[in-house]
Amino acid sequence: QVQLVESGGGTVQAGGSLTLSCVVSGYIVTDYCMGWFRQAPGKEREGVGTIGSDGSTAYGHSMKGRFTISKDNANEILYLQMNSLQPDDTAMYYCAARGGGYCSGKWFLSAGVRVVAQWGQGTQVTVSS
């Protein structure tokens, strides 16, 4: 049974930082594209940062330079380091995965939610001004 369990969300002031974690069970992370997506109230779910089975990464436009995605292959944990957080970053953040062979971070980000095979339950991030 594949499971993705997020943690690390919370409330932070603008300019602050948070690190999200996603513990993966049921498969080997190196064989999958993985990523973080977010959804704010009334908005569509969007890609935040993705990492391919080859280790390549990609980020949404507003996240570049502020967010960093990484994964601990040994412990099968996906991370998202978020710096310089702004109120517009307030959203539910979801861990996501897709298997089925080679995939790049750029491809996973561009393909978006329609190709995600597994979702976590989400963790809320709230940034106050």
Description:
- With 129 residues, this protein is mainly beta.
- The protein has one helix at residues 105-111; strands spanning 3-7, 10-13, 18-25, 33-39, 46-51, 57-59, 67-72, 77-82, 91-98, 118-119, 123-128.
- A hairpin with a 6-residue loop joins strand 4 (33-39) and strand 5 (46-51).
- The model has no long low-confidence stretch (mean pLDDT 94).
Can you describe this structure in just a few lines?
The protein is mainly beta and 129 residues long. The chain contains one helix and eleven strands.
Task: Fill in the keyword field for this structure.
129 residues; mainly beta; four-stranded antiparallel sheet; 11 strands; 47% strand
Q: Tell me, briefly, the overall form.
A: globular
Q: Compute the number of strand runs.
A: 11
Q: Report the sheet-strand fraction.
A: over 45%
Q: Main beta sheet, described?
A: 7 strands, mixed
SS element count, helices: 1
Q: What's the helix-strand series? A: EEEEEEEEEHEE
Indicate the low-confidence ranges by residue numbers.
none
Secondary-structure map:
Elements: E1 3-7, E2 10-13, E3 18-25, E4 33-39, E5 46-51, E6 57-59, E7 67-72, E8 77-82, E9 91-98, H1 105-111, E10 118-119, E11 123-128
Parallel strand pairs: 2-11
Antiparallel strand pairs: 1-3, 3-8, 4-5, 4-9, 5-6, 7-8, 9-10, 9-11
